[in-house]
Design goal:
Blueprint: H1 3-20, H2 26-31, E1 33-38, E2 41-46, H3 49-71, E3 77-82, H4 84-120, H5 139-150, E4 159-162, H6 169-183, E5 189-193, H7 194-206, H8 211-223, E6 227-231, H9 240-255, E7 259-264, H10 276-283, E8 286-289, H11 295-308, H12 315-324, H13 329-345, H14 352-359, H15 370-381, H16 385-389, H17 395-412, H18 416-422, H19 427-440, H20 445-458
Parallel strand pairs: 2-3, 4-7, 4-8, 5-6, 6-7
Antiparallel strand pairs: 1-2
Helix pairs in contact: 1-3, 5-6, 7-8, 11-12, 11-13, 12-14, 13-14, 15-17, 15-20, 17-19, 18-19
């Protein structure tokens, strides 16, 4: 027999053996490798001497009968040989399997430890850097949070993140915690809402039994850590005793070289009835702002939600969501969830028409025309509409033209081709003008104020 025929012959024999011999012998049968077939004698090798001895002693007659049947030769027989090289090979494979199993066990243990630490740190698993969509409105805050996560207690301590509700403050804050636990698990992380801190303090301070011991436990709970994440600090206003205690907590952590991260819906100066010492501590590090995302960022957020949830939809449905829910990310996510739920319950695909049917958004924005935007912008900059749409290149007209193009894109979501055509400009020129404003609007107060006042005049947010 050639090698191919020999292997096929052995596979038939092995199949018969597996069908007839006890299940306890199957691993030994599988370990046998065919070596040759000469004058009716089939030679197989094994790296397990016990397999050779056991099969010979207890199953020799059965094995030979099966071989005679398959070979159709009443004189056929089997010769089982112990091979040291095969034994070494088996030993290596066993060691390899054991190593993989040990690594898997260690990995599983590590994941369990991480889950425990994330749970004890009070973190939500969905708030990680990996699923935070970065846009012009939040890039600076994201970069600051990542820098703190990579180097806690470094240059940015405390880190004060502020902005309206639903813009991602909690997400960034907890992302710092997740990053730390995964990359530097020796550090202790604790996330707490300001309300929970207040209630915890009041509860411990009112206990009459062992009051000193109770407050000692409270202090250790919030200072025997490496990174503290305190959400919605604005709720501490007017609570004098709690503010004093929090000041002590921050001072202790700061003196021990621990990282403090705080979020608020406003800057310290706008939090009434907060102590000067606490406000000073907030402002002593880095303060970063989160603002509402622009259309492109909102669109990316919706698409990311779809990918994460394995959902497909028409592109226009995504745009409809991004266009109509522009105040904050939380509102946008809620609208996305509502549309997806309706589609699932009614077994319908997610289309533009379905999104409109479910959300019933008013079409007020669509009534804003290029003409109206350009007219209000021209009035703001004290220039003529014809100059904006013409070739005039004075600094004032150029500024008004760029702002008009930027607002036409942001408020109508029309294509740059259509916008360029309205302003008698090329598509690339309209795109460049839009990007010039977009890249500067969060850092230049004059531009930010101009956009806000023009929007107010247009009666849009």
């Amino acid at each position: 027999m050639d090698n191919i025929e020999l292997k096929r012959f052995w596979e038939k024999v092995k199949e018969e053996l597996i069908g007839c011999l006890p299940e306890s012998t199957h691993p030994w049968i599988y370990s046998l490798e065919v070596s040759g077939y000469d004058k009716g004698i089939l030679t197989v090798v094994t790296g397990q001497s016990i397999a050779r001895d056991w099969l010979k002693k207890h199953h020799s007659e059965q094995i030979n009968n099966i071989l005679k049947k398959v070979a159709n030769d009443k004189n056929a027989g089997i010769h089982i040989v112990y091979d040291e090289n095969a034994a070494k090979k088996i030993k290596k494979e066993v060691e390899k399997i054991k190593k993989k199993e040990a690594e898997a066990q260690l990995k599983e243990q590590a994941m369990e430890n991480l889950s425990y630490m994330q749970s004890s740190a009070n973190l939500n698993l969905k708030y990680k850097f990996e699923n935070f969509v970065i846009g012009e409105n939040n890039k600076f805050a994201h970069d600051a949070a990542l820098a703190v996560a990579k180097n806690p207690s470094g240059k940015f301590n405390p880190l004060f993140i502020y902005g309206n509700a639903g813009l991602g403050k909690t997400h960034l804050m907890q992302a710092i915690g997740h990053y730390t636990i995964f990359n530097n698990p020796k550090l202790k992380v604790k996330y707490t809402k300001t309300d929970d801190y207040i209630n915890d303090f009041i509860s411990n301070s009112r206990k009459t039994n062992n009051s000193i011991e109770n407050m000692s436990k409270f202090n250790k709970k919030y200072t025997n850590i490496d990174i503290i994440l305190i959400d919605d600090i604005q709720f501490i206003e007017s609570k004098e005793k709690t503010m004093e205690r929090m000041q002590q907590t921050f001072d202790t952590l700061y003196q021990k070289g621990k990282q403090i991260v705080i979020t608020s819906d406003r800057i310290p100066e706008d939090i009434p009835k907060i102590t000067e010492a606490l406000a000073s501590r907030f402002k002593s590090g880095l303060m970063v702002e989160l603002t509402p995302p622009d259309f492109d960022t909102r669109l990316q957020i919706v698409k990311k939600l779809a990918i994460d949830n394995d959902i497909t939809a028409e592109e226009e449905a995504f745009k409809y969501l991004a266009y109509n829910f522009d105040k904050n990310v939380r509102e946008l996510e809620g609208a996305f969830t509502k549309v997806c739920a309706y589609a699932e319950f009614n077994n319908k695909p997610i289309t533009l028409n379905l999104a409109k049917e479910v959300l019933k958004c008013r079409e007020d924005k669509n009534s804003i025309s290029f003409d109206k935007i350009t007219e209000i912008t021209a009035n703001y900059y004290d220039v003529e509409v014809n100059d904006i749409k013409g070739t005039a290149r004075s600094q004032k007209v150029a500024a008004a033209r760029q702002m008009s193009i930027y607002l036409c894109r942001e408020l109508t979501n029309q294509s740059f081709e259509n916008i360029g055509e309205f302003f008698n400009k090329k598509h690339s020129t309209a795109l460049y003008a839009h990007d010039q404003i977009k890249s500067k609007i969060n850092s230049q107060k004059e531009l930010s104020n101009a956009a806000r006042e023009i929007k107010q005049a247009l009666k849009v947010n």
